[in-house]
Every structure is written in C-alpha cells, then in structure tokens.
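Forum > Structural Biology > Help requests

Title: Can anyone predict the 3D structure of Probable membrane transporter protein?

Hi all, first post here. I have the sequence for Probable membrane transporter protein but no way to get a structure on my laptop. I'd be grateful if someone could post the structure tokens.
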Amino acid sequence: MILSPETLAFLTAAAMIAACIDAMAGGGGLISLPALMAAGVPPVAAVATNKLQSSIGTAGACWAYARAGHMDLAAYRWPVIAAFLGSVGGAWLLQRVDPSILAGLMPALLIAIAAYFTFGPRAADFDRKQRVGMGLLGLLIGVIGFYDGFFGPGAGAFYATIFLALGGLSLLRATAQTKAANLASNIAGLLTMVAGGHVLWIAGLCMAAGSIVGGQIGSHLAMRFGGRLIRPLLILMSLALTAKMVIDPKNPIHIYLSG
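Reply #1:
Sure, ran it for you. Structure tokens for Probable membrane transporter protein below:
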C-alpha cells in the first residue's frame, strides 16, 4: 500500500502527539490507530503498523525513565516477560478472528479505570506495600499484554492501574513500569505481525520518527510534574477512549443503543 507524502506527514504528526500522551498516561493508541485507519489502512495492517511506531517511541520513553532511576527491570522482570508472552498470543489471535468482539467490553473497563482514579485513594508520590504476589501481578499484566497484542488502545491505562493499585508503586514509578511492559508487549505484537506480513514499513518508520520526539517530551513532562499531570490525563484518556468506542457505529454497544 502506497501512501502520499501528505498522508505520511499527517501520520507522523499524529504519532508525535500520541507518543507524548502515551508516555505520560497511556492511551496514545486512541490517536495513532484511528489516524492510520482514517488514512485508509486496513484494520489488521493498522494495528501492525501502529505496533512498529509505538515500539520505537516507547523504547525512547523507557530509556528516559530508566536513566532517571524510576524503573526497576530486575524486580519487575516477570511482569514484563508476561506482557511479552501475552502479546504474542493476542497478536496471533488477531490475525485469525474479528477484533471487534472485544469492543463491547472495553468501554466498561475504561470507565472503571476512570472511576478508580477519580474517586479512589489518592496515589502517593512514594511506593506502598505490594498487595499481591509477583506471580499474580505477572498474570494480570500478561492478560493486558494479550489485549495489547490483540487490540491495543487503552493498554497503558490498564497496566498503570495494576501497577498502582496492586503493585503498590507510586504514580510516577507505576507509569515508568508501564512503559517497560508496554514496550515488551509492543515488540512481541510487532514480531508476530511482521511474521504475518502485515506491517507497512514506510508509514511505520515515518510515524516512529514522530513517536520518538513525542515520547521524550511526554516522559520529561511526567517526571517534572508527576501525579498532578499523570492522574488527570489517565482519567481523560480513559473517558475519551470510552467515548470513541461507544460512538463507533460498529461497536456492539452503539448498535444496541441505536436499535
């Protein structure tokens, strides 16, 4: 599939904005994935190409968080591995079934996330006691990894909620660990999609350039402003993604309400 220079420029700008938001609160797929589909890219190829640009942008955000000392890959290696393995399964399944089967479930989950950050206990700026063992934490992260490989948008918000509510991490550290899990699931999904021949390389690499810039901007903003910026963005992105899914004419909830 050949895209015009104007379309590539549009996708690059969309990826930069998406990566900036994603580095702070997750949910960047709300921007980048619809942008690819608006450019006429078929759904599976759009997910695959989005994995390419997102992997590169997330890698940059990971580097920024790790360099600043907010990420502990040694302690949280098993959740990261679980995200990778789950994403392989999700991306494999995506190439064989209709991903819209998840569309009806996502709005309810995203509303629950928004409610947690709005009405739940205020996130601390320091780590607290971990509420579940590393095994269960890894299992839950693996489930989100599966979702990320299969569908994608909103995975960052799910990761962050698990690391914050159950992992006992501060909001900034939960965001940093989310980037590590996100990177693992993006790479796993990308490799699986590459094997299936679904990636549009020129579009993906152009978007990756924008994603690198946006990821660096977003991660530095998050480290500078912390929970004051991350918490409202998590709420906003969860509600925005919910609205986007519900107004989609193909979403089962939209069909039900319209009928």
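The mean pLDDT is 82. Residues 171-196 form the longest helix (26 residues).
Shout if anything looks off.
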